[in-house]
Amino acid sequence: MREAIPRARRPIGLVLALALAAAVNAAAQTKDVEVGLIAPMSGPYARQGQVMKMAADMAIETINQQGGIKSLGGAKLKLEVFDAGDSVEKAKNAAQRMVADAPNLVVATGAYLSSFTLAVTEVTERAQLPVVTFSYSDLITSRGFKYVFQTSATGVQQAEGSLPALMEMAEKASGKRPQTVGIVMDNTAASVSFVKPMRDHQFEKLGLKLVVDETFTPPLANATPLIQKVRSARPDILILLPTVISDAKLLLEKMNEFGLGRGKLPTIANGAAILDPDLRNNMNIEQLEGVMAVVADWTTSAQKDFVAEVKKKTGEPWATQHFVTTYGDIWIFKAALEAAGKADRESVAKALHAMNLTGGAANFFPGNGKLKFDENGRREGASLLIVQWQKGVPITVYPAKDAISPPLWPKQ
Amino acid sequence: MPGIDLRRQALLIAVFAIAYGLLAVFVEHSYYLLILAVVPVWAVMGLSWNLLSGYSGFVSFGHAAFFGLGAYFVALAQIHWGLSPWFGIPCAAAVGAFAGLIVGIPTFRLRGHYFALAMLAYPLALLYVFEWLGYQELALPMQREHAFAYMQFEDHRIYVWLALALMIGAMVLTGLVERSRFGMSLVAIREDEAAAEAAGIRTLAWKLKAITLSGALAGAAGGFYAVVLLVVTPPAVFGMLVSAQALIVTMFGGVGTLWGPVIGAVVLVPLSEFLHARLGNVIPGIQGVVYGVAIVAVILLAPEGVFWKIKDVLLRRRLREAPQAACASAMVTALPARNRSPESKIAFEVRNASKSFGGLKAVRDVSIQVMQGEILGIIGPNGAGKTTLFNLLNGFIRPDQGRILLEGKDIVGRRPYDICAAGVGRTFQVVRPFRRMSVLENVVVGAYVNAATDTIARTVAEDALVQVGLQDEAQQLAGTLTNKQLRLLEIARALAGKPRLLLLDETLAGLGAGEVEEVIAVVRKLAAQGITIVIIEHTMQAMVRLVDRFVVLNEGALLAEGLPGDITRNPAVIDAYLGKRWRVANA
Prior knowledge:
By secondary structure, chain A is α/β, with parallel strands linked by helices. Chain A folds into 2 domains: 31-153 and 302-371, Rossmann fold; 156-295 and 385-398, 3-Layer(aba) Sandwich (Rossmann fold). Chain A has helices spanning 4-20, 46-65, 88-101, 114-126, 155-174, 189-205, 224-233, 245-257, 279-282, 306-314, 321-340, 345-354; strands spanning 33-39, 77-83, 105-110, 131-133, 148-150, 180-186, 209-216, 237-241, 267-270, 292-295, 357-358, 370-371, 385-390, 393-398. In chain A, the strands form 3 sheets. A 7-stranded mixed beta sheet of chain A has the order 7-6-8-9-10-13-14, with helices on both faces. A 5-stranded parallel beta sheet of chain A has the order 2-1-3-4-5, sandwiched between helices. A two-stranded antiparallel ribbon of chain A has the order 11-12. The longest helix of chain A is centred in the N-terminal third of the chain and has 20 residues, at 46-65. Mean pLDDT of chain B is 86; it is low at 323-337. Chain B has 2 domains: 6-317, ABC transporter involved in vitamin B12 uptake, BtuC (Orthogonal Bundle), CATH 1.10.3470; 346-586, 3-Layer(aba) Sandwich (Rossmann fold). By secondary structure, chain B is an alpha/beta fold. In chain B, strands 8-9-10-5-11-12 form a 6-stranded mixed beta sheet, with helices on both faces. In chain B, strands 4-3-6-7 form a 4-stranded antiparallel beta sheet, covered by helices on one side. Classes of the chains: A alpha/beta, B alpha/beta.
């Protein structure tokens, strides 16, 4: 219904634009530009999808308030949401719906889990719809696709980059290099692949001695024997990789009980799960104090007043990884549309490939301060952040240029 | 199942295929085309599940194992060897078949819930194995050139047609199975596995064939699904939902039917998709709720599935129109004089057989000889070990010691179907008909063991029915028969296997006086044809007139044997079994 009016006016708009192109700066073109969000809106991941939608809504509201896409005559962005559900099949079906039901869509972001994104981009690639994603899997940008853009450091980059980043931070914070390390992990695929490069070559290369190495099958029934071993071995740093929240809770409670909590034993996890606001409902937040996580994105010093705005507009206590990236994605869309000057898929894809931004959208993605994709669609220079729970809030503490506050590290 | 003849069935399938195929021509929306391509995939999964679980009654919660292996085979074969799905999918069927066989061999040692739960373990285990192997996410490589050769079509309608072809293939296969001794044997196994085995059905062999074929269908469905989905992940193909979906579409449509899984998939898959697509983000989870409600409604209103409900309604209408044929009862003929001249050749021999169940010695050192052509009666008090002896004879249980010789050959350790094939038929103390099969089908199942073709089996079965006088009830469901008819049905079923020795276990139990005469007449007729008969019975009045010789068991041991006149006067037999009445009668 809403589209009917502009469509009827299009010939008039065209005539006007042609006639007054030089004098009037394309003010007559007011057609909305549709951008998509495909993410889980139902099922167990619905909460993450909702967060992504909040972020997209907030970014679009700001952009539209600031005058929309200027190169398109101030066209407003309009968000179309597609529910990726809770399975690869549903995600793929949603993608099919997206390309069939929304022919005017010019670009989309999504789809939360890597496996969903893989399935979704198989569809969007064939429909030549550019998709910007934060999913980690290396596979996403190693299929030779031309319409997919990955803003995160990939899974392999994260596994390779985590330990060196941690070592560098530890050395700066405490003045000496850690000598020993401990691992307490579950046997899920994510945890196993995270420590694989460490076990394979990094510990040796970095001169770290593995003094405690424990693997358990979730769910954990009793954390005492694991943490006892950690206490007696007393590594300089502990890599703690639970996947299930209840396991994380059990392990951290036991660490606190044994006097290893609250930053006394520097403890690091992977991924943003351990930084989620939901954790406040599940465990005593004080026990999370000092716990760190290696993540591919978070709120950094580059984003001024961002968290305050998030709090005000959404009621969320802080911006999580998916909030930040989805928000940033919408700004990437804006930049691409501005550069393209045309609201069609091909032009937007070209603009994304040609993009080389400093500041703006680039501020939302950690790395070398630039936003540029290589020919496979991978963001060049994508790097990692270390985030630490400080006074009940996860704060970026590494690298120094992005850090909001210095890391809490035990002084010995 | 019976009811719809072959030509009509084929016509129905053809009409359905054409209608479905045409539907795709007029749909342009790629999402609806995707749904149209996915519906047959789940129908094939349902048919695959149905082939094993629907017909044989061995409920599988683990069909995702075969589906997932098929999907991963197609994906990995294309990624690593560049194998096109055109070849990959047939290979995936072979992989599924092989997996079915490997899974079946150990798992068919279990029954009932244990089988179902054991099956559940396979996809769960495979899910972790594939994660551990590092195959969390596989994408079928996009082929920008030679797309057609790799089953990647711009035109999504081709997927629909391919899926449809796969489904029609599965339907035809199921139809062929259903009509052959394969399907009939599976249904007999579902109805009563022990009775089927005693009737000469090689139960394990058929079950293994069923799970192999079922695995092949599931493997092919999984392979095609990988092509449609383009991404394969362990939860998507090995997940609980895959097995559940196969089961749900079949239960919804109708278990043990050709059309059931198809009806289920055609209704439920688009419904759940539609609900998810239209309402999923408004009311998260609504699709699950409505889906669940639909299933609960079907279970309440049509517990055997939509197919049976429709069939029942149609059948009832037809029955109301056609008045029931008058029930003709077999005429009771007067007992012919029994020609008591058994040949001297030993047909069957038990030598020193013993069997204990824990501390209970059910059969103790029993030796019996059965002469060719004779009617031997086995009597004794309850718990004397009569039925246990029969179970030893037809191979249900193995004696702890002793030998059992059929026409001179030791048959200890041979399976019941094997012994049945060798010429030993039996009936049961408590009747064990295949209740959901027609009378004729019951007997046909018994005929397979010694019939080269299904046509011969049918002729033999019809003859057997005539012999026992059940020819008029041939099309009736066995579950609707009277006790006498069931007894005769069991005899006919045993008879159809062309036995030389017939073991009748309390065939006269629970019959009225007139009915006893009818059954005795039938038994005599069989004996007159040269079939050796061993009968367990308590009705002494009938027995003394029927049998040539008695064997008396007491507390598992042989108490006496001899001619009816001698046995009824034997004091030990009177004390142990017959009671004082007989002492008086004979005095």
